[in-house]
Design goal:
single chain; alpha/beta; Rossmann fold; 6-phosphogluconate dehydrogenase C-terminal fold; Alpha-Beta Plaits; 3 domains; seven-stranded mixed beta sheet; four-stranded antiparallel beta sheet; 13 helices; binds nicotinamide-adenine-dinucleotide; binds prephenic acid; oxidoreductase
């Protein structure tokens, strides 16, 4: 990739632009607030002048409710070979794009799993995405060239590509991002009218839990409006835990010994489950990063091959956690290495063989 146009030079757009510019890509910066594009340029993220011809990649990093119109407008202007967005919800966006006449071959929906409670170009950093998952949601219609541009962007930002189906992505982020945001807001909201004598005692625990409550409310309203069902499903389960916990605490106030004992068990259970869930958060508690198994597949140099392989993996419910492509010099073929959770490699290999793919044994 030699040239890119970043549309929306806030936290995410400017961070990606800084990483691309640092690796030699000529980056053009556009924002509907020209002052923001100027600020990003002053930070070294590129130039706020429009490109003279078509760029390789247009990266749309505007608020979630504006993404569809910004992608469609960029496609109408024919500014790039490939169009990506970084919006936090992928499923409903796909419907909006389809309804607006999006060209599905040159567009690919993505979502970097890194960010901050701060917004705007001044909060951006070139290393924001390093080591973080960056979700790609190709379909069978996605052009291989566009998928390759997306993989290159992720590599240049030193992130880790994760290929997922858009709806599976939305259910996953409802659990790991959208519900935590709401809970953080709800805990922080308890402080709004709290007595100063309590607030002055705030220690590290509440700081950890409420950091993201300071995030931009307008952006989060957009995100929740685009993913209401999956978030409500997770919250319903949490509400059951909450109700059980209230009952358990009331039980501890009871003089009845049996009730007291059961309540103690119920509380211990929620705390133990919490420890177990917390131990699964990647990179927390110093545990080693996940190790994946590799399935290496022979692909020919034809349009649509990569998208087809990702779709076949998605059809058997396997997420691709990382991807590497080895191009064989002088040949019309190469190997794509699909990294998957250990335990999923065998079933993926079998499913791909059944669908006619040739696999290389490691
Ligand atoms: N903040 C996060 O933690 C995070 C993480 C991953 C993905 N995202 C996604 O990234 C996108 C951008 O989020 P952000 O945090 O960078 O927001 P931000 O508010 O920092 O930046 C958004 C920028 O887009 C500009 N903009 C708005 N409408 C525009 C338009 N039509 N054309 C051009 N520019 C326009 C704004 O002026 C602003 O500079 C959102 O879709 C969000 O869902 C955010
Ligand atoms: O680190 C933070 O501040 C974030 O909340 C980032 C976070 C997340 O939930 O992980 C928030 C929303 C985005 O869609 C992706 C990343």
């Amino acid at each position: 990739m030699r040239t890119a146009l970043v549309i929306g030079t806030g936290l995410i757009g400017t961070s990606a632009a800084l990483a691309l510019a640092a690796r030699g890509v000529r980056v053009h910066l556009r924002d509907h607030d020209p002052e923001r594009a100027r600020t990003a340029a002053a930070l070294g993220a590129g130039t706020d002048r429009d490109p003279e011809g078509r760029v390789d990649l247009a990266l749309v990093a505007v608020p979630p409710a504006r993404v569809a119109e910004a992608v469609l407008e960029a496609q109408r202007q024919d500014v790039a070979r490939g169009y990506l967005d970084v919006g936090s919800v992928k499923g409903s966006l796909r419907g909006d794009l389809r309804a607006g006449g999006c060209d599905p071959a040159s567009y690919l929906g993505t979502h970097p799993m890194a960010g901050s409670e701060k917004s705007g170009p001044l909060a951006a950093t070139a290393d924001l995405f390093e080591g973080r998952p960056w979700v790609l949601t190709p379909t069978t219609e996605t052009d291989t060239e566009v998928l390759n541009l997306a993989l290159e962007l992720v590599a240049l930002c030193r992130a880790v590509p994760v290929v997922m189906d858009a709806d599976a992505h939305d259910r996953a982020v409802a659990l790991v991002s959208h519900t935590p945001q709401l809970l953080s807001s709800m805990v922080a909201a308890r402080l709004e009218k709290a007595d100063e004598t309590a607030v002055r005692l705030c220690g590290q625990g509440i700081r950890d839990v409420t950091r993201i409550a300071a995030s931009d409310s307008a952006m989060w309203l957009d995100i929740l409006a685009a993913n209401p069902g999956p978030v409500a499903d997770v919250l319903e389960e949490l509400a059951a835990d909450l109700e059980g916990t209230v009952q358990a605490l009331r039980g501890l106030q009871s003089a009845d010994e049996e009730k007291h004992g059961n309540s103690s068990l119920a509380l211990a259970n929620v705390l133990t489950r919490g420890r177990e869930g917390s131990a699964r958060v990647p990179g927390k508690h110093g545990q080693a990063p996940a190790t994946y198994e590799t399935v290496a597949v022979l692909i020919s140099d034809r349009p649509g091959e990569l998208a087809r392989i990702f779709a076949d993996a998605g059809a058997v419910g396997v997420n691709i956690e990382d991807v590497r492509i080895e191009h064989a010099t002088g040949q019309q073929a190469g190997h794509v290495q699909l990294m998957v959770e250990s335990g999923a490699a065998q079933s993926l290999a079998t499913a791909l063989r059944e669908r006619g793919w040739a696999l290389r044994t490691q």
